[in-house]
Amino acid sequence: MRTGSARTRLLVTLLAGLAVAAIAVAIATARKTDHEVAELFDASLAQNASLLVMRIGEEVDEIETEHAPVLHKYAKPLSFQVWKRGRKLLLHSADAPDAKLSERLEGFSTVTQGGRDWRVFGVWDAKREYLVQVRSAVADRQHVIVDIMKALATPLVIALPVIALLVWFAVGLAFHPLARVGEALSRRDPNYLEPLEGDVPREIAPLVQRLNALLARVKDSLEGERRFASDAAHELRTPLAALRAQLQVAQGAREATERDRAIAQALAAGERATHVVEQLLTLARLDHQAWKEAAQPFDLHRVAADAIAERAALAGAKRIELALEGPTGLRASGHAGLAAIAAGNLIDNAIRYSPPGTEVVVRLATEGNIVQLRVVDQGPGIPAARRAEALSRFARLDTQVVEGSGLGLSIVARVAELHGSPLALGEGPGGRGLEALIAFPAA
User: Which domains does the chain have, with CATH numbers?
Assistant: First the structure.
């Protein structure tokens, strides 16, 4: 996970982008200014040359520019030459040399003379008798460009810190709601998991919504854990107390028969406690979704047959027959281990609640894209009004009939839900007993 301040990164990014943009604008402005100043100076040269050509019709000696007044700081004395037929120098300014200003007689050219760069413009009169060349120093143009850039840079240099300060305040203002959410979380008691409230910007509203959803899930999980722990403690208290009592009886027994009977009772209590723990652990794994794996095809007939085989001794002790009906090789998609737990719990309940000399039947069938497992017994059944209650944790509708943890059907209901369909409870054939149906997707 990345560390550091998002606000700092945003500020650095914005200010760096602002600086790059300012530099890019300055460069573009400088290039444009250079081009426009060059055009203006060239236009001035061409205009001065045109004016001289217009005066050539007068006496050439009367053309006088040396004492023209300088009316502007950028105005420079005109540097020029007038040539007769391009060969004889008739007139020139004081700063002009005797040689031609440029070998290019017409148009613009740039030359170096006397260690300086000059921009030269040449033009003939209409009769091509007189050649006029005028020039200006390239350095004069550069001075103008530098002055313009200085004038532009001064407000930019002043504005950049102001803009940076505004960006800093704007970023801080934008991050304030996020900081407020962080402060609200930091002030919370760990046990206070109510959703965050208050207006937040649209940009962080999804974050707050997901955070509230997470808080709700954590709250539900903690409440489930508290309920689970308290119910488990209550449910284990009876078998553990019975185990301790029987061990104390065995410890104080004077006769072997009494001691053996107490030990047998203690073992039975231990087995009940073990069964409760196994059921609790199974349900805990389901609640924490630690079972999740990719769905795999499995043989539902084999799962059901193994579950029946594991409980054959329990059924034989009560003189209950176990039967499996349905096609072999029936393939379902899901979690084979969970399917085995569900089938085993249904068969366990059916054996416990069925009277001796009856039959428990496990039926397998397909219906469209669904594979069904039914467990039918001939016990007292569950009234329709109490079937929803029977699927809740630790539900024991008649504790006087048989002993149990009240977790079997709730585990089966959870397994059925994880495989995409609810556990269905109904009456057995002829309105006698209970029929439990769990469905799996067909493979």
Answer: 6-64+74-149 (3.30.450), 205-287 (1.10.287.130), 296-441 (3.30.565.10)
